[in-house]
TrEMBL record, chain B:
Belongs to the CcmF/CycK/Ccl1/NrfE/CcsA family. Its main location: membrane. Keywords: Cell inner membrane, Cell membrane, Cytochrome c-type biogenesis, Lyase, Membrane, Transmembrane, Transmembrane helix. This is Heme lyase CcmF/NrfE family subunit. GO terms for molecular function: lyase activity. It is found in: Cell inner membrane. The chain crosses the membrane at residues 12-34, 46-67, 101-118, 130-149, 180-200, 212-234, 254-271, 278-297, 317-336, 357-379, 399-418, 430-448, 454-473, 494-513, 620-639. It holds the Pfam family Cytochrom_C_asm. Residues 649-670 are annotated as: Disordered. The lineage of its organism: Bacteria, Pseudomonadati, Pseudomonadota, Alphaproteobacteria, Acetobacterales. It is a multi-pass membrane protein. It comes from the Bacteria.
Length: 169, 670
């Protein structure tokens, strides 16, 4: 075997998709992803800017993949999006501006963390809702379980007072 | 010879027979229990054993077909090949839809058989009903297997060779992940059957709790191990150091685990205090429902796209109807019969029971968030026509914070007495764990990046020390050290197992905290270049060709130096499988249990004489799965407890009188 140029990530992605479908069919609890060993020349020279780019990239979905962010994906599209993020950062955009730019071009689907609006209110409110519902149910059940102590009958009252006075008879 | 006897036709016949037997296993014992006919009730065990035997035969037929390369069986032709190693020929049986469905049925039948074998101490009617419910569920899925996913279908003309298996799936981790995972999923069918039987009887008592608990512990241990194995596989195969992606596939396995963990704890309250009975019945139903949805909705593809569901309408409609029948039926039964169940014992909010309620509220809240996040995109697309994504950043910011109070309470819960607890003794026992956690918090704030990692490190230490404090208190560690081993041995195994599982959770959390500090670099290097990652110096020695059994590989050799000492030599590689014309990356990992060195070989650029390398240093990475292993072992230890073991009375008490320790007194009180 002679030296071989590695196949492009795009070629890699499609057999992985096949593997994904196979794993889905077998009901495995493991994600099939196309791990990218990205080209180092993609990265920004400034480490701080590169860190920002990676952070933004980890919140952007590779649109042709299965629930993968663009930093981790080996697909061609993800590479193009990585370039775009870095170009925007190099041009001086803030994190917010890069995100808005992406959403304007590709829609809400590209955000791995959906925006809070009336449609996603239930999604974002679920932690609080679940805690309230669980806590409320527990509190209600506890209250119902505790029967109100019935008042003492007259003879019991008398026995108690006698016991308290120290007369055990 | 073997293949002549165990033919695919025999397999299909055995599968059909098992379906008939399962139907009988459903109908007759239920009838017997309703009419109080002891003979009919006792028939349950026989049917369960026969059904299991039939499925063992069916499964053996499929294994033989795969092992002997019988490509006239469509399933084998589609998934196997002559050149595939024997291990993967056999484990490949459950690496596809039809085979895994058959395995699923086999494990369900084994559950029925296990209840029949170990359930001799159960009241006749309860045992009959439990086995009947398991039979009914099994019959449904065997019908599904027979009509829509027949693994024994013949292909004609038979191809000379099979299509082979995806190289990515040819991995030992992947080979044993499905049986373990399925044992977890399907194991929850037993608590489910107990819940349905209890609803039919209209009675839940402490004995019921004592019965449900070991089955739940067993299923939970398998599921924990299965999920951990899947996560470990992603780590060492997928190749960028990730271990959990909040993928719908993973969430589908996490949901029954969360619910099952809650069930595990609420069943304790039923057994010890006869409280939370209705809730526990509901949890048992919910856990198995999530297991079913996990295995079958995921493979329908509905979670990834509503459209892929239409690919195989017959399968999809059948499975939806089956799920609706099992889940909807049991929930309807619950709504109808739950009011009959008597409410149980009283307890103050600040008590062992109270802490277990808190555990349940928090675990179920995490489950609700994960379920909502997983189901939101398909529902948004269906109802509002909008495409949105819900990914890791969402779950990390909503589900993970809910784990903080859960872990905080985890150390305290086991130290609390039943019924009513007082704050002062608790604080006294948590002095040491608290001090250590505070120290880690202070050190972490100084040395770690980010708020959550610091919190996670402190909570991990807190949980582990809490588990140690629990055992130290039970064993009376201040007393005579000479009898300490004996006292430790006399501790209830269930208590030891619980502490071990809790400590395991702490170890996993420490692993997560460590991994958040992982560092990596992607570089383009020439042989001889040296690269520094996280304080280590990596030197690329060279890249060479190596031929494998059914692939060609390019293998890089990397030396790693810490200071001037050579600590590891790693060989990451890329394999090319000519049969599928597919390339996979083989990660190289060197671990010393404190941190992993992790190397991936990327593209080569022959024109420049360079290769792309991705080099990671992953602190505490193995702890994530080590912790999960401890959790599963804790479950196993707990199962070996004689009091939890089926029907065993407790003659141990009088023998141990002579040696009075708080541990024994606590054990006796329990």
């Amino acid at each position: 075997m002679t030296s071989r140029a590695g196949p492009s990530p795009g070629l890699l992605a499609s057999p992985r998709m096949v593997a994904l479908l196979a794993a889905l069919a077998a009901g495995l609890a493991m994600p099939m992803k196309a791990g990218a060993v990205s080209d180092p020349s993609e990265m920004l020279a400034d480490p701080a800017a590169e860190r920002r780019a990676e952070h933004i990239g980890s919140r952007l979905r590779c649109l042709v993949c299965q629930n993968e962010d663009i930093e981790d994906s080996g697909a061609d599209l993800a590479r193009d999006l990585r370039h775009a993020v870095r170009a925007r950062i190099a041009a001086g955009d803030s994190d917010r501006q890069v995100m808005d730019w992406m959403v304007a071009r590709y829609g809400q689907f590209i955000r791995l963390q959906p925006r809070l609006d009336t449609d996603t209110l239930l999604l974002w409110g679920m932690p609080a809702l679940a805690l309230l519902a669980g806590g409320g149910t527990a509190a209600l059940a506890a209250r119902r379980r505790r029967p109100a102590p019935s008042p003492l009958a007259a003879d019991e009252e008398e026995r108690v007072s006698r016991l308290l006075e120290g007369d055990p008879s | 010879m073997l293949s002549a006897i165990l033919s695919p036709e025999l397999g299909r016949f055995a599968l059909a027979l098992s379906c008939c037997l399962a139907s009988m296993q459903f109908a007759l014992p239920l009838l017997g229990a309703a009419r109080r006919r002891p003979g009919l009730m006792r028939s349950a065990s026989g049917f369960a054993a026969a059904q299991l035997l039939a499925l063992v035969v069916a499964f053996a037929c499929l294994v033989v077909a795969a092992a002997t390369d019988d490509f006239s069986v469509a399933n084998v032709a589609e998934n196997s090949a002559v050149l595939k190693p024997m291990l993967y020929k056999i484990t490949g049986v459950w690496g596809n839809h039809e085979g895994s469905t058959l395995l699923w049925c086999l494990i369900l039948a084994a559950c029925g058989g296990a209840v029949a074998a170990f359930g001799r101490g159960l009241p006749d009617a309860l045992r009959a009903r439990v086995i009947a419910v398991l039979g009914g569920t099994a019959a449904g899925f065997e019908l599904f297997c027979l009509f829509t996913s027949d693994p024994f279908d013949r292909a004609w003309p038979a191809p000379p060779d099979g299509q082979g298996m995806n190289p990515l799936l040819q991995d030992p981790g992947l080979a044993f992940h499905p049986p373990i995972l399925y044992a977890g999923y399907v194991g929850f069918a037993v608590p489910f059957a107990f819940a349905v039987a209890a609803l039919l009887e209209g009675r839940v008592d402490a004995a019921w709790g004592r019965w449900v608990r070991p089955w739940t512990v067993a299923a939970w241990s398998f599921l924990s191990a299965g999920i951990a194995l899947g996560s470990w596989w992603s780590y060492y195969v997928l190749g960028w150091g990730g271990y959990w992606f909040w993928d719908p596939v993973e969430n589908a396995s996490l949901l029954p685990w969360l619910c099952g963990t809650a069930l595990l704890h609420s069943a304790i309250v039923v057994e010890k205090r006869e409280a939370l009975k209705i809730w526990t019945v509901l949890l048992a139903i919910a856990t198995f429902s999530l297991s079913l949805s996990g295995t079958f909705l995921v493979r329908s593809g509905i979670l990834n796209s509503v459209h892929s569901f239409a690919n195989d309408p017959a399968r999809g409609v059948f499975i939806l109807m089956l799920l609706a029948l099992v889940i909807g039926g049991s929930l309807a039964l619950f709504a109808w019969r739950a009011p009959v169940l008597a409410a149980g014992g009283l307890f103050a909010p600040f008590s062992r029971e109270g802490s277990l309620v808190l555990n349940n509220v928090l675990l179920c809240s995490v489950a609700a968030v994960v379920l909502t996040g997983t189901m939101y995109p398909p529902f948004m697309s269906l109802l509002r026509g909008q495409a949105i994504s819900v990914g890791a950043p969402f779950f990390n910011e909503t589900a993970v914070p809910l784990a903080v109070p859960l872990l905080a309470a985890m150390a305290a819960g086991p130290l609390l007495p039943w019924k009513r607890a007082r704050m002062r003794p608790l604080l006294r026992r948590l002095r040491v764990p608290g001090a250590l956690a505070a120290a880690v918090l202070a050190l972490g704030a100084w040395g770690l990046q980010g708020v959550m990692p610091v919190l996670a490190a402190a909570l991990g230490v807190w949980v582990i020390c809490g588990a140690v404090a629990d055992i130290a208190g039970r064993v009376g560690w201040r007393r005579d050290p000479r009898t300490l081993p004996r006292r430790l041995r006399l501790l209830p195994r269930a208590a030891l197992g619980a502490a071990l599982a809790h400590a395991g959770a702490g170890v996993s959390v420490l692993g997560l905290a460590g991994m958040s500090q992982a560092s990596h670099r992607i570089v383009e290097a020439r042989p001889g270049d040296s690269i520094t990652v996280g304080g280590d110096r990596w030197v690329l020695r060279g890249v060479a060709d190596v031929a494998g059994p059914n692939y060609d590989a390019r293998v890089a050799t990397l030396d790693v130096y810490r200071g001037h000492r050579l600590v590891a030599v790693l060989h990451p590689s890329r394999r090319h499988f000519p049969a599928q014309d597919q390339t996979t990356g083989e990660v190289a990992i060197h671990t010393n249990l404190i941190s992993d060195l992790y190397a991936v070989l990327g593209d080569e650029h022959p024109e420049r004489g360079t290769v792309v390398l991705r080099l990671h240093r992953n602190p505490l990475a193995p702890w994530i799965w080590l912790g999960a292993l401890l959790m599963a072992l804790g479950g196993a230890l707990s199962l070996s407890d004689r009091r939890i073991r089926v029907g065993a009375p407790t003659p141990a008490r009088s023998r141990s009188r002579e040696l009075r320790t708080p541990a024994l007194e606590a054990a006796a009180a329990e």
